[in-house]
Amino acid sequence: MAAIRSLITGGAGFIGCHLAEQLLREGQEVYALDNLSTGSIDNIEHLKGRKGFHYVIDSLENEHLLAEMIDRSDVVYHLAAAVGVKLIVESPVNTIETNVHGTELVLKHANKKRKKVIIASTSEVYGKSTRVPFREDHDLVLGPTSKGRWSYACSKAIDEFLAIAYWHEKRLPVVVVRLFNTVGPRQTGRYGMVIPSFVKQAVQGTPITVYGDGKQSRCFTYVGDVVKALVALSDHPGAVGEVFNIGGGREITINDLALLVKEKARSSSEIVHVPYDQAYEKGFEDMPRRVPDISKINHLLGWRPTIDVEQIVEKVIEFQRAGTRLEEAAAV
Ligand code: UDP
């Protein structure tokens, strides 16, 4: 049987590059498309030259190219997006346009060629909901349009609506996944993500910056677990037309996370609290708790996360230390 061919938009991004590895491990042919806006060529350096791996550095907006790459593929994983709360607060126009227009183009061309699409959405869509744990059929509770952060959730909710509309109206097979705080090696702290940021601070001995009072909590999910769920969902006929939470693990407050990172890195960094207004923008609203209900994906696939937050932190510390060792060696 010929190998399955998968297109990953955002293939040089943090999740995209791990997904590419997983698909190659499973013997698939992988096409990665990325404009390197938030992704990085370093993320796919080790995949270049690997049998079955192909990549193009260009934008989704190059429609001829996108159509051609979709045509060559059996499945499309649409991961290209503007992500990270810092990025969203700083560049709301780019976030909205990238997330809405990119998905529009992918669905339009996938529909022309009748190719299955996996759409990456986010736990942000639950917004300020306090109905924890979040289930896929719960209401989404978003803040006012005057607060930039909500543009991300809203843009992703539109992506979800559009994908599901393609399924209902045109019978295009789509699967929507809501990813919860996915973390692991190669994630950058540049766009505000907390674990790579804390690890960097702890390793460098600079203050660990906890935003707000630190009592807000998250469930962190290892990227290796997440990409396995994506591949399994793409393969399962029962997933088509459905929305799935992907996440889980132990709920941990950001204060406890800071202590955990400090301890695991054997760091002498002090832990400081920074008001939200200073960290993001005036009037910034955070979610107090973000916990997924994963019974839907668990019932369908038996999937649940296998790597806990302590192991995740250890892996990220090891990754960053290895990067520093390489830089030091190069400088000699
Ligand atoms: N956070 C923090 N310090 C940082 C970066 C983030 O305290 O340097 C907090 C952030 O305010 C949020 C949590 O950590 O409450 C998770 O942030 P992240 O941006 O990783 O993901 P989010 O859950 O906000 O999408």
Characteristic terms for this protein:
three-stranded mixed beta sheet; globular; binds uridine-5'-diphosphate; 332 residues; Rossmann fold; seven-stranded parallel beta sheet; alpha/beta; 17% strand; 42% helix; 11 helices
CATH class of one domain: Alpha Beta
Radius of gyration using CA atoms only: 19 Å
Average residue-wise pLDDT: 95
- State the shape: globular
The span between the termini is 50 Å
Low-confidence stretches: none
Main beta sheet strand tally, sense and closure: 7 strands, parallel
Give me the secondary-structure category. Answer: alpha/beta
CATH fold category name of one domain:
Rossmann fold
Beta strand count: 14
Indicate the percent of residues in helices. Answer: 40-55%
Give, in spatial order, the strands making up the sheet with the most strands.
3-2-1-4-5-6-11
Strand content: 15-25%
Topology order in helix (H) and strand (E) letters? EHEEHEHHEHEEHEEEHEEHEHEHH
Q: Note the total helix count.
A: 11
Quick one: CATH superfamily of one domain? NAD(P)-binding Rossmann-like Domain
Q: Strands, helices and their partners?
A:
Blueprint: E1 5-9, H1 14-25, E2 29-34, E3 53-57, H2 63-71, E4 75-78, H3 85-90, H4 92-113, E5 116-122, H5 150-170, E6 174-179, E7 182-183, H6 194-204, E8 208-211, E9 217-219, E10 221-222, H7 223-235, E11 243-246, E12 251-253, H8 254-264, E13 271-274, H9 276-279, E14 289-290, H10 295-301, H11 309-331
Parallel strand pairs: 1-2, 1-4, 2-3, 4-5, 5-6, 6-11, 7-10, 8-13, 9-14
Antiparallel strand pairs: 9-12
Helix pairs in contact: 1-7, 2-4, 4-5, 6-8, 6-11
The structure holds uridine-5'-diphosphate.
